[in-house]
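A further point concerns the way the authors explain their paired sequence and structure data. An entry of this sort, consisting of the sequence and the corresponding backbone structure tokens, reads as follows:
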Amino acid sequence: MGHLDHAAYGWLTPALSYVMASIGAALGLRCTVRALAATGTSRRNWLLTAASAIGTGIWTMHFVAMLGFDVIGTEIHYNVPLTILSLLVAMAVVGAGIFAVGYGRSPRRALVLGGLTTGVGVASMHYLGMAALRLHGEISYDPLAVGLSVAIAVVAATAALWAALHIKSPLAVAGASLVMGAAVSSMHYTGMLAVAVRVTPSEAALPGATATQFIFPLAVGLGSYLFITAAFVALSPTADERAASDSAQNLGERAVAH
């Protein structure tokens, strides 16, 4: 069996991937809170932003962590279409879970359905991303650790959606995001513990792109998207602030009329 190194750069990739997962979760929860206070197109747009934020955060977390993944005796390349498909799956399935919560008639049923959908989505994103690996050798998985990683993903997603429904204050959202970031990271590393690689040394060129050619630029791009969206969401007024400014404006107009 090939020797696997999950943190080739020390604490850098696990710490950075945790930060990315937490920022994505914070942004997603904040947008979901805003969505539940809105109606019509505004609600739909907030939910779409929430799905893209959580999906992007989880995907970036996975691949930033993968930058630190090394197998002694072989290079690692990534199949580009499969890697991009894993990002789209992350956004689509997280979206389905968030819309179930955003438009669900019965909160409890919506939460169970949303948590299950999102959790399975996070896990399928992880294993699709792993299927994109190209190396000299064979990858095998320990079914028990795979099952555990899926269970962690479902519990984490359900807890995060519960937080989105019940938590309103920015401080509590920040706390919930740190917990969700930790849960997504532990799901990732549990999934990685399931991996075993039997290396077959070879001089042949591997198909796909290296992490530096492809994963790194994409992770930087998506990370920037998260930061910019986070700034936009932080600066846009909440429903309460908008109501307060409208009533202040009405008072001003009345005063002018008199």
Remarks:
- The longest helix spans residues 40-67.
- Residues 4-251 form one domain.
- The two ends are 85 Å apart (CA to CA).
- The chain has one domain: 4-251.
